């Protein structure tokens, strides 16, 4: 895959124990490709850590423009995706294939890619991340219209939600 000219440069990375090794591998690959990976943690492997503690601060940095895009990793990628999408302005998705990595950015202005550290090996993960980094939002009217509807959901006055029953 080919990265486009002027790709995003500052990339936020966050993972719990399930994605720790993959995050470290991707950080090196990003550095080697000319990106500036910013590690939001966990900086040490800690089997009892929780993905929201690392993913949410990274997602806030994406939302505030402090990093250009983000990579969130947990064991399956699902929890990291759920947590990242709770931050207004973040459009995160679990990505399992290169088509979705590209199309998610081009059509949906995806700004956080979520991966499963126990699902994707380093080669596949790098393919997905490089594709994600090389893609650009199309800006097509139909996509902007749809994203405006999504943004309206975030801005509703009624912020009530149903918490899971535990």
Task: Please provide a written account of the structure.
The chain has helices at residues 20-32, 52-64, 78-84, 98-108, 122-134, 141-154; strands at residues 10-15, 36-39, 69-74, 92-94, 112-116. It has 166 residues and is α/β, with parallel strands linked by helices. It has a five-stranded parallel beta sheet with strand order 2-1-3-5-4, sandwiched between helices. Helix 1 crosses helix 5 (122-134), helix 2 (52-64) packs across helix 3 and helix 4 (98-108) packs parallel to helix 5. The longest helix is centred in the C-terminal third of the chain and has 14 residues, at 141-154.
List the helices and strands and how they pair.
Blueprint: E1 10-15, H1 20-32, E2 36-39, H2 52-64, E3 69-74, H3 78-84, E4 92-94, H4 98-108, E5 112-116, H5 122-134, H6 141-154
Parallel strand pairs: 1-2, 1-3, 3-5, 4-5
Give a short summary of the structure.
The protein is α/β, with parallel strands linked by helices.
């Amino acid at each position: 895959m080919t990265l486009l000219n002027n790709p995003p440069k500052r990339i936020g990375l966050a993972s719990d124990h399930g994605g720790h090794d993959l995050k470290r591998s991707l950080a090196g690959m990003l550095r080697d490709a000319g990106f500036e990976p910013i590690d939001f943690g966990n900086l040490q492997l800690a089997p009892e850590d929780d993905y929201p503690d690392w993913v949410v601060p990274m997602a806030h940095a994406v939302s505030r423009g402090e990093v250009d895009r983000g990579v969130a990793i947990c064991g399956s990628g699902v929890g990291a995706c759920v947590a990242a999408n709770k931050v207004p302005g973040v459009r995160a998705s679990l990505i399992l294939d290169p088509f979705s990595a590209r199309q998610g950015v081009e059509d949906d202005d995806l700004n956080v890619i979520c991966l499963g550290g126990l699902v994707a090996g380093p080669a596949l993960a790098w393919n997905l991340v490089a594709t994600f980094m090389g893609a650009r939002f199309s800006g097509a009217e139909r996509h902007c219209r749809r994203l405006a509807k999504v943004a309206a959901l975030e801005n509703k006055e009624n912020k009530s939600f149903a918490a899971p029953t535990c």
